[in-house]
Amino acid sequence: MSITQGSQPALPDRRPLLTVAAAVAVCVVLGAAAGLVTSPQIATWYTTVEKPGFTPPNWVFGPVWTALYALQGVAAWLVWRAGFDRRGVRLGLAAFAVQFVLNLAWSPAFFGLESPALGLVVIVPLWVAIVATIGLFARVDRRAAALLVPYLAWVSFATALNYAIWTLN
């Protein structure tokens, strides 16, 4: 049985605004922390790397990732609300955790180790894990799956960008 818009969550949530804010905050803070750890390489190493013409300006990445982490938080929250006692919820959240860890690993691989090749080693499984998470989330709450589609689109773009940087350098 899927949770659809308008149905009651399986998990009683007496403070939905607080719990959704907490889920969003966790995703945004963890994502920002991973970015901050590697930000020195953006001003140094990354400026020396040859990049393709479709590379966005550096200022684009922060707002885009903040929005995508917020969407991830809401998506995970929607699935969690369906009831952690459900196998589908546990599987979906486990897949979410795997993709999130891979997401957090990409910046240290690409920027921290200054390795576009290692970035590809991380981002390709990340893309697969996002697709799996969307599929598992869709079985629980289609809205949660839909919230991850912009993230998949951005990681698809980032994969192309990572590949182009690897081939140019």
Please, could you describe this protein's structure?
By secondary structure, the chain is mainly α. Helix content is 79%, strand content 0%. Helix 1 packs parallel to helix 4 (87-112) and helix 5 packs antiparallel against helix 7 (149-168). The longest helix is centred in the N-terminal third of the chain and has 28 residues, at 16-43. The model is unreliable at 1-8 (pLDDT under 50).
Would you count the extended β strands for me?
A: 0
List the secondary-structure elements in sequence, H or E. Answer: HHHHHHH
Q: Report the mean per-residue pLDDT as an integer.
A: 93
Overall 3D form = elongated
Runs in which pLDDT lies below 50 for 5 or more consecutive residues are 1-8
Regarding quaternary structure, how should these chains be classified?
A: single chain
Number of contiguous helices: 7
Biggest sheet descriptor: none
Portion of residues within helices: over 70%
- Tell me the strand percentage band: under 5%
Radius of gyration equals: 17 Å
* Secondary-structure content class: mainly alpha
Distance between the termini: 49 Å
